[in-house]
Specification:
Distance between the termini: 23 Å
Mean pLDDT: 84
Number of helices: 6
Number of domains: 1
Number of strands: 0
Largest sheet: none
Oligomer: single chain
Radius of gyration: 14 Å
Low-confidence stretches: none
Strand content: under 5%
């Protein structure tokens, strides 16, 4: 929302949203902001155990909703996600998506 982007940087807004309990952040048509928020949250999760726990909690909540409402969603084992994220080159992924 413009009211948020006029007042906070992408990083500040992402941090405030995650700390407030927001599970999903939406960025319309602005891949640069998506990348900035994602990279910031990855760094924060590595630095701050409370942020990492909060992000993991969101992941579990979103996954449970998908399981409940999307019959074909089987999910991914949490250990597999952790190992993939640890070895992930975020810039390479971003380039692949774009």
């Amino acid at each position: 929302m413009k009211a948020i982007s006029d007042r906070y940087t992408v990083e500040e807004a992402a941090a405030l949203a995650v700390r407030a309990g927001v599970d999903i952040l939406l960025y319309c048509h602005e891949i640069g902001k998506v990348a900035a928020a994602f990279e910031f949250l990855c760094a924060e999760a590595a630095r701050d155990p409370a942020i990492r726990a909060r992000i993991e909690e969101s992941y579990r909540r979103v996954t449970e909703l998908k399981r409940r409402y999307l019959n074909s969603f089987t999910g991914v084992d949490e250990n597999e996600i952790a190992s993939r994220l640890e070895g992930l080159n975020h810039r390479e992924l971003l380039n692949e998506v774009v």
